[in-house]
Amino acid sequence: MAFPATPVCAIVLRDDSRKGATQMAQDSRQSRLAVVGAGKMGGILIEAFLKQGLVSPEKVFATVHHAAQARREFSGGAVPIGTDNRAAARGADIILLCVKPQTVGAVLNEIRPELNSEKLIISIAASVPTEYIERRLGSSIPVIRAMPNTPSMVGAGITAICKGKFAGEEHVATARRLFDAVGKKVSVDEKHMDAITGLYASGPAFIYIILESLAEGGVKMGLSRELATLLAAQTALGAAKVALETGFHPALLKDMVTTPAGCTIDGILELEEGGLRVTLIKAVVKASQRAKELLFSDEAPA
Asked: In b/e form, how buried is each residue of 129-153, taking b as 16+ CB within 10 angstroms?
């Protein structure tokens, strides 16, 4: 599928009440976005941007690795999908790099002739440092590294953002405006990105196991699976909301629920005997270590 020479994305921010919002929206409408590698996370971001009204579907282009994947639809088919990364990058001001770590080098080689210092690369490729991207591109192109997690699909994600040596605060601001559409965002030192990956990129899977286990406990005690799952999920949501809004340490919040000689302390005893606390800590550590190991072998020639 060929890509026309028209702008590939118009970003329109919503918030007419805040100072500077109108100017921000006007600036954003001038931007053009290409999503290179519209897989699981790339697709989540596209749909989230569309749902939040940040992206005009007729002006956003996405690319996939195989032609068969180009039949996938975003926004009811309003978003064109192709396989020509270079053509997508050519017409874009912002390139959102959503490919697997092992293919980053080859993709950068492909789109490099279409890049310049006026364009912005935002990479969500796990374990790929900004320094590697900058070195592969061989020029002063601003690079932002971001790591969103899958709850972004419902606007409840969180994205860690760090900048490369050629990126300025204006580039960080652009990334923050984009990822604001899918949840919270934090600016971090790049040295922490692997730990962040192990904690909150893998974390939703750990939470789902906990939710499933809580629901199974409810089923064991006679609840319907539908009711047990609802109770478990809402309990997790409520507990997380309390932690975020009060700022209290989780241990303090746990103690607030736990009454002397009550049922909760008996349940906590079972959790401690089962090693849940240590197991979760080790899960984060192992996932973080794996993030470091994912640091692709640089097989693509420069």
From this structure: bbebbbebbeeebbbbbbbbbbbbb
Q: Are residues 206 and 129 in the same domain?
A: no
Question: Do the Cβ atoms of 142 and 164 come closer than 8 Å?
Answer: yes
The DSSP 8-state label assigned to residue 19 in this structure reads T
Helices 104-111 and 130-137 sit at what angle, rounded to 10 degrees?
Answer: 40
Q: Give the CATH number of the domain where residue 53 resides.
A: 3.40.50.720
Residue 156 structural domain:
21-190
Q: Are residues 39 and 162 in the same domain?
A: yes
Pair (141, 277) in one structural domain: no
| Amino acid code (one letter) for 21 | A
Mean pLDDT, 10 residues at a time, the chain of 302 residues: 40 37 42 88 86 76 73 63 92 92 93 95 94 93 96 93 96 93 94 95 97 98 98 98 97 97 97 97 96 66 58
Say how many domains are in the chain: 2
Tell me the C-alpha distance between 160 and 190, whole Å: 9
**Dist CA 296 CA 292 (whole Å):** 9
